[in-house]
Amino acid sequence: MANYILGIDQGTTGTRAYFVDKEGRFYAGAYKEHRQIYPQPGWVEHDPEEIWASVCGVVHQLLEEGAVRPGDSEGIGLANQGETVMVWERATGKPIYNAIVWQCRRTADMVEELRARPGLKAKVHQKTGVFIDSYFSAPKIRWIL
């Protein structure tokens, strides 16, 4: 009988998975840390393959512990790192670069150039609701591509 939800929180420092019942009680949980990669000052990356392995690892650990059987879960809830960016090669499914983490500042110069363009800052904010900042995904995607 399906009575649980599998929650997966893929966070900045690691991945947590847990089973929660319909009343919000935790039944089982697992956590696996992953590396932070700092190729230059102000840059932060994660290895996408390592992230995927940590997600699979914590789910397998929960199932192996046997507190909840796979058929006992009604669904899966996911949370992730917000503005962290990963890009995959369509043909292979492999990442083309490490994940650029939300707090990475590698695009700061690019962002400053964009902010200096007359009217662009206000136009971007009006259309998107966000400010031109290295935190957001668009500059990271531009940097990768």
From TrEMBL:
Keywords: Kinase, Transferase. This is Glycerol kinase. GO terms for cellular component: cytosol. It holds the Pfam family FGGY_N. GO terms for molecular function: glycerol kinase activity. The keyword Kinase applies. Residues 4-144 form the Carbohydrate kinase FGGY N-terminal domain. The keyword Transferase applies. Belongs to the FGGY kinase family. It comes from the Bacteria. It comes from Candidatus Hakubella thermalkaliphila. GO terms for biological process: glycerol catabolic process.
